[in-house]
């Protein structure tokens, strides 16, 4: 990491710390949901952007995480235990789902995860004795840290921010580790990676399970943020929304999902004046973006950068300029 | 037993409509590796073309149908390919998935905003009388739907296997590079595939709308069922998609009657998961060789 990047990171973090003080309660809520969805999208980016597996089930893992946290904390289990349990459960379920599913890849995995997501929503809706059915669960407590209540929006924001930074650092470490490099090798050329000794199935499975546990954590934070959950909040549309965050920002770029989540969470706020036409405008923008820039916004930045370097040094190959 | 027979036949009828959607879906996949997540909306929309023609422009029903066919082919076939798929094809499957999902939302919301959020009755093409067959009441409409859909599939098969264009289309689907070398106009063949898909979507639309009413959100379930049918039957086979569609229609109807209502919609999903795990190439599909 260069000094330049480090300075940008520190500045970014400073903005994240100072920004909420300038916002109303609602503004802080929007910022919180951005961070929460960023965590979920980071997890999906590991599965999709680094390991190259299309998953349409991220919302179902958020749901599993949210319901686990809600049920456990409301039954009196301390929140750290509940949140860790949510992550572990999502890891295990991700592993169990991925183990058979990763025999088949690409579009098949997309469909299997799509079906899984629909099944999870059906269960959340139908098992009323546990999940409260369509009425959902109300009154999920927010965590208490060293005697400090996070009931106030600002306090909870910093709780979410701390976890967000923690998860981002963890992800960075994973990507830089030999495992993470194996993920990338797999995405670029599975057969070559395999011939170099990367166990394809174990590696993708791990990426999928870790990505799912990120979803689980995001879900448990979402439950504490809104203090109300129902099956509708974890449907297929939400999975697509998280997928969209990863793609719009730029799959395979570390900051892609964070940027994507910002845009997707803020878009409804900016487009609110359009009322009923909101979804149409949104969909049109997505199509236009895909047509003109299928690698996402960060992909666009990268392309501009490469082009610039090529202009400065016309003798360089694209490969050199891209570095 | 009579109820079972009745459910079975009406299941076959809806199943044959699912099959039309599933076949279009597999054709697009074969010809251009396009997974069309808006397939359900493609079936929802043509019925509204017809309704708009009769209600707003005062056209008679047959004229409105003709206009709707042309519109479907232009928008859902030619326009879809030129505007969305062509620029995205070089970038792999994922951008197409996202763009077609967005297209589905756009079509759904467009109908809701500019037309209506209500479910509209659609004129039935056939009488709703029932025939008594061996003690079971079978509706004429079900039989007619089944015959028309199967007839369309048979015609399509004849076209693909019996004409030069059809064979060129198959060659394009199997290996576009070799087809091109052999002088097949690959791009035009792919365009024909998109037009056929639009035509199938139109047919499915006018067959299913009298049964389920025309509603902007119809595409959600239809699209999902079309995927499941295509995968269960075999992603790379027309007869696979046909079998998958019929099977799902029957299973859907039977599980509505014999499985607990809350978990009715889980049955096709579980079937899908089992099929992918046990036989990923689908019931009638051939395993695709792995390319290095």
TrEMBL record, chain A:
Membrane-topology annotation of the record: Multi-pass membrane protein
| Gene from which the chain derives | livM
Main localization, broad class: membrane
Give the UniProt keywords, A-Z.
Answer: Cell membrane, Membrane, Plasmid, Transmembrane, Transmembrane helix
Per its UniProt record, what PANTHER family does this chain match? HIGH-AFFINITY BRANCHED-CHAIN AMINO ACID TRANSPORT SYSTEM PERMEASE (PTHR30482), HIGH-AFFINITY BRANCHED-CHAIN AMINO ACID TRANSPORT SYSTEM PERMEASE PROTEIN LIVM (PTHR30482:SF20)
Q: Which organism is it from?
A: Sinorhizobium americanum
Q: Where is the protein situated, by its record's location annotation?
A: Cell membrane
Q: Which GO terms describe its molecular function?
A: branched-chain amino acid transmembrane transporter activity
One GO cellular component from the entry? plasma membrane
User: What's the protein called, per UniProt?
Assistant: Branched-chain amino acid transport system permease protein LivM
Superkingdom of origin organism = Bacteria
Against InterPro entries, the record matches this protein to: ABC_transp_permease (IPR001851), LivM-like (IPR043428)
Automatic annotation (TrEMBL), chain B:
Instruction: List locations, semicolon-separated.
Output: Cell membrane
What topology does it adopt in the membrane?
Multi-pass membrane protein
Q: What is a biological process (GO) this protein takes part in? A: amino acid transport
A GO CC term assigned to this protein in UniProt: plasma membrane
Going by the entry's taxonomy, the superkingdom of the source organism is recorded as Bacteria
Protein family (similarity comment): Belongs to the binding-protein-dependent transport system permease family. LivHM subfamily.
Protein name per Swiss-Prot or TrEMBL: High-affinity branched-chain amino acid transport system permease protein LivH
Q: Source species, please?
A: Sinorhizobium americanum
């Amino acid at each position: 990491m260069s000094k330049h990047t480090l300075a940008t990171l520190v500045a970014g973090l400073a903005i994240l710390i100072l920004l909420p003080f300038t916002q109303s309660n609602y503004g802080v809520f929007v910022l919180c949901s951005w961070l929460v969805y960023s965590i979920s999208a980071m997890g999906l980016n590991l599965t999709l952007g680094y390991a190259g597996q299309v998953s349409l089930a991220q919302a179902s893992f958020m749901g599993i995480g949210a319901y686990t946290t809600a049920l456990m904390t409301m039954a009196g289990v301390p929140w750290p235990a509940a949140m860790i349990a949510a992550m572990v459960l999502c890891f295990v379920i991700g592993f169990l789902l991925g183990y058979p599913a990763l025999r088949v890849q690409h579009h098949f995995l997309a469909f299997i995860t799509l079906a899984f997501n629909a099944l999870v929503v059906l269960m959340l809706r139908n098992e009323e004795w546990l999940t409260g059915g369509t009425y959902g669960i109300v009154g999920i407590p927010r965590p208490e840290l060293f005697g400090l209540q996070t009931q106030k929006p600002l306090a909870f924001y910093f709780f979410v921010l701390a976890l967000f930074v923690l998860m981002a650092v963890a992800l960075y470490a994973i990507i830089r580790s030999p495992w993470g490099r194996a993920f990338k090798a797999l995405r670029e050329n599975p057969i070559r990676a395999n011939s170099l000794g990367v166990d394809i199935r174990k590696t993708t499975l791990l990426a999928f399970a870790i990505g799912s546990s990120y979803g689980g954590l995001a879900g448990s934070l979402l439950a504490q943020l809104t203090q109300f959950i129902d099956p509708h909040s974890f449907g297929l549309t939400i999975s697509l929304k998280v997928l969209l965050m990863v793609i719009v920002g730029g799959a395979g770029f570390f900051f892609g999902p964070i940027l994507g989540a910002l845009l997707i969470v803020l878009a409804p706020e900016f487009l609110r004046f359009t009322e009923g036409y909101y979804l149409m405008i949104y969909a049109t923008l997505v199509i236009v973006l895909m047509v003109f820039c299928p690698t996402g916004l960060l992909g666009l930045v990268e392309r501009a950068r490469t082009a610039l370097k090529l202009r400065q040094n016309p003798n360089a190959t694209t490969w050199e300029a891209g570095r | 037993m009579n109820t079972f027979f009745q459910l079975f036949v009406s299941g076959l009828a809806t199943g044959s409509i699912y099959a039309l959607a599933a076949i279009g879906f597999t054709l697009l996949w074969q010809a251009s590796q396009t997974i069309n997540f808006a397939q359900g909306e493609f079936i929802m929309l043509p019925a509204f073309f017809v309704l708009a023609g009769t209600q707003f422009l005062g056209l008679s029903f047959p004229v409105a149908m003709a206009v709707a066919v042309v519109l479907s082919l232009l928008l859902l076939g030619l326009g879809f390919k030129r505007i969305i798929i062509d620029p995205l094809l070089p970038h792999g499957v994922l951008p197409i998935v996202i763009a077609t999902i967005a297209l589905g939302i756009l079509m759904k919301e467009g109908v809701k905003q500019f037309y209506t959020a209500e479910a509209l009755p659609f004129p039935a093409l056939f009488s709703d009388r029932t025939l008594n067959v061996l003690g079971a009441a079978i509706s004429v409409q079900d039989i007619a739907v089944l015959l028309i859909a199967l007839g369309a599939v048979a015609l399509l098969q004849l076209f693909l296997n019996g004409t030069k264009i059809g064979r060129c289309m198959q060659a394009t689907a199997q290996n576009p590079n070799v087809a091109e070398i052999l002088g097949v106009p690959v791009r035009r063949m792919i365009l024909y595939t998109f037009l056929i898909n639009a035509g199938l979507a139109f047919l499915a639309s006018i067959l299913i709308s009298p049964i389920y009413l025309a509603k902007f959100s119809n595409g959600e379930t239809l699209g999902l069922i079309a995927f499941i049918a295509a995968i269960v039957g075999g992603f790379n086979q027309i007869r696979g998609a046909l079998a998958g569609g019929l099977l799902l229609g029957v299973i859907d109807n039977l599980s509505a009657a014999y499985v607990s209502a809350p978990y009715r919609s889980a049955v096709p999903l579980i079937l899908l998961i089992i099929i992918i795990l046990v036989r990923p190439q689908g019931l009638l599909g051939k395993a695709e060789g792995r390319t290095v």
